[in-house]
Amino acid sequence: MVDATLLHAVELLEELTPDEMARVAASAESTDYLRGDVVFHEDDEPDRLYVVSSGRIAIANKSIDGRESLVALMERGDVFGEMGLFDQLGRSAEARALEPSELVALPYGPLRDIYAGRPALLWGVVRLLAGRLRNTDVALADSVFLDVTGRTAKRLLELAGDADQFALPITQEELAGMVGASRERVNKAIASFVRLRWIEQQDRRYRITNRDELERRAR
After folding, report:
1. With the CA atoms of 113, 83, 74 and 68 taken in that order, what torsion angle do they form, in degrees rounded to the nearest 10?
2. N- to C-terminal Cα separation, the chain
3. Which of 16, 100, 158, 174 is the right S-S partner for 20, CB 3.0 to 4.6 Å?
4. Domain count, the chain
5. Range of 64's domain?
């Protein structure tokens, strides 16, 4: 059974009436994924969007030679795969489970019918896509104005959130993909933070010991 509370919390669906939500929920399907399972590949023909019920999903692009860039991490309540609902083009990236995850799939058909009947709902879609565009602008600026060490500091802070102690939810290779650099250069940046006593590291567990300096390096 699909978690109705989860769907009500999704930005894309929050303005639906109870009847409209019931129509969407009736078509929803919940599926479990293991770590490494691919939800969809880049260029696949889209027919549904997904809401994360549990776990983490990586949205990634791959180069011809196999290098990977992690575009985003999706967690509980996040929605992805919605672009095809509007442009009917192939998937723009790959979606892959980073850990055991449960996803709720929502077919495009019922959503298209609802938006066609109430076009004003599309303002919510515009807000969602504008937020995605702003995040892309920030990532582009980071790639221009921050060096690898600065981008590594920023990604660690993002993954930590408000906590000083946290476990890295991704591998070093995947972190390198988020930073946009080689694993060796990212590891070197982390080693410098440890040497400066800004963080402590034990395997994939970290403790931020000097947040001010780490934040300064991320700017």
Report:
1. 160
2. 45
3. 16
4. 2
5. 4-137
* Closest to 24 (Cα-Cα) out of 82, 100, 72, 74: 82
Same domain for 122 and 38, yes or no, is yes
Structure pTM?
Answer: 0.79
22-56 pLDDT, tens digit per residue, is: 999 999 999 999 999 999 999 999 999 999 999 99
CATH number of the domain enclosing 52: 2.60.120.10
Per-residue pLDDT tens over the stretch 51-86: 999 999 999 988 777 777 888 889 999 999 999 999
Lookup result for tokens 């590594």: 152
Is the model's pLDDT at 217 over the cut of 90? yes
What residues does 84 pair with on adjacent strands?
none
| Domain end position, chosen among 137, 155, 173 | 137
Task: State yes or no: pLDDT of 103 exceeds 70.
Answer: yes
